[in-house]
Amino acid sequence: MEINLIELEPRHAHDLLTSMIIPRPIAWVSTINKMGHTNLAPFSFFTGVSWSPPILAFSVVNRSDGTVKDTVRNIREVPEFVVNIVSVNLLATMEYSAKPIPYGTDETSITDIHWLPSKTIKPRRVQEAKIAFECTLERTVTVTEGPNAGNLILGRIQLVHVGDGLLKNEREVDWFGLDVLGRLSGNRYCTVRSVIESETN
């Protein structure tokens, strides 16, 4: 079977693509606007780009009316953000933070999480996140314009917060202790419960 995603209705293409690119880590991004109001939102088109310099990237797709989401708007005003990593126990709160709210509403009142000041940037980080990356904007790559257009945000990592007891031998994070949540398609998620170790890599 061959599928031309361009010929499909956008939501149809979305559903197919997000069921093919799996599992995906979730960037739970905290930003602030120029008034200092905090926004927190999850994005599952997220990955690392390079380690020297340390750069990560996540994509924010425009709303169906073509407007940019609050995360993009905030980063344009204050070019800094925190990428908080979502563990399994944070699923319900993460999903709640994905609901649309009026722009400028301060999300520091979200229940079940607490906020800590960042060390190098203005946006705060989620205390319950076992890993959090403090980032400054490296650049934004806009992929077309209008409804469903992508905004690829590249961030330079300034500092990483790692939960106590997660770092092993100063070179590796304990994946079982992190208990990270992976995104599948629809309302489905996955966890890391087993690992395949290659003897040739």
Topology:
Blueprint: H1 10-20, E1 24-25, E2 27-32, E3 38-43, E4 46-51, E5 54-61, H2 70-77, E6 80-85, H3 91-97, E7 115-116, E8 125-126, E9 131-143, E10 150-162, E11 167-168, E12 172-173, H4 175-178, E13 181-183, E14 189-191
Antiparallel strand pairs: 1-13, 2-3, 2-6, 4-5, 5-10, 6-9, 7-8, 9-10, 11-12, 13-14
Q: What report would you give on this structure?
A:
- With 201 residues, the protein is of the alpha+beta class.
- It has a single domain, classed as Pnp Oxidase, Chain A (Roll), CATH 2.30.110.10.
- It is built from 4 helices and 14 strands.
- The chain has a 7-stranded antiparallel beta sheet with strand order 3-2-6-9-10-5-4. Strands 1-13-14 form a 3-stranded antiparallel beta sheet, with no helix packed on it.
- Strand 7 and strand 8 form a beta hairpin.
- The radius of gyration is 17 Å and the shape is globular.
- The two termini are 32 Å apart.
- The relative contact order is 0.20.
- The model has no long low-confidence stretch (mean pLDDT 93).
